Amino acid sequence: IEELAELDELTGSFNRRCIMRVLDDEVARAHRTKAPCSVALIDLDWFKRINDAYGHPTGDEVLRTFAITVFANLRAIDKFGRYGGEEFLLVLPDTPDDSAARILDRLRAIIADLDWSAFSPGMRVTISAGIATLKPNETPDAILARADSALYAAKAQGRNRIASA
Ligand code: C2E
Ligand code: C2E
Predict the structure, then answer these.
(1) In the chain, how many domains are there?
(2) Ligand that lies nearest to the alpha carbon of residue 40, given by its number in the listed order
(3) Which residues, 6 or more positions from 89, have their beta carbon under 8 angstroms from its beta carbon?
(4) Are 118 and 54 a contacting pair, CB within 8 Å?
(5) Cβ(8)–Cβ(82) under 8 Å?
(6) Mean pLDDT per 10-residue run, the chain (165 residues)?
(7) Domain that holds residue 151
(8) Domain of residue 74, CATH code
(9) Radius of gyration of the chain, Cα coordinates, nearest whole angstrom
(10) Residue 102 in contact with ligand 1 by CB distance below 6 A
(11) Best of 38, 39, 75, 78 to mutate for ligand 1, by most ligand atoms within 8 A of CB?
């Protein structure tokens, strides 16, 4: 019952409701302990084109492979959930801005270097990410909005890149 309530069926990551609760909890904890906390909004580039070109079942497999890759390359304390269709939210407790940038760029490179040709010859998948690190007294909504603006900037700068708020 807990799994059904908390997990996204397709990717096995937290569902939106759960990752938002995690964000609330981690923001509250970081304010209390004065520990750093960073978040990242991650979006699969041109995902609609992948769905259109290869079909929705392949699009689903791409999302699943992306999620498995994230799980394999982050620490267990890092929290990862599906925020919307092809958009994911990563909450990095105890992580300052420079580490968050390093983590997200590592992830970006791993995804870009994966061999996606098993899905379809010549297929390429990349991600863009917007990172924000918690400011004093900042609300969960406010840090999310900054991460979203940074994601928008990463997209505008050409995708397959990360940007920090
Ligand atoms: P690094 O990979 O350059 O990471 C630098 C710092 O970024 C880490 O310092 C940590 O604060 C943060 N960081 C990096 N990746 C992650 C992540 O996936 N999740 C979280 N929450 N934080 C992350 P730290 O802990 O002092 O580690 C220093 C160095 O030790 C790392 O430099 C890396 O070279 C190595 N290291 C530590 N843990 C692991 C691990 O589980 N696997 C591998 N391959 N290397 C590790
Ligand atoms: P974990 O902490 O759950 O990390 C899972 C994977 O996330 C790591 O697999 C690595 O691919 C990535 N990762 C996590 N933190 C870092 C980091 O700081 N830098 C880099 N470059 N990658 C990171 P990996 O390397 O196969 O490690 C498997 C497990 O072994 C880790 O699970 C952790 O429990 C342990 N481990 C590996 N290296 C270190 C280390 O330097 N310090 C500590 N305390 N544990 C380590």
Answers:
(1) 1
(2) 1
(3) 19, 20, 23, 39, 40, 41, 42, 80, 81, 82, 83, 144
(4) no
(5) yes
(6) 88 97 98 98 96 94 97 96 97 98 98 93 95 98 98 98 98
(7) 2-164
(8) 3.30.70.270
(9) 15
(10) yes
(11) 75
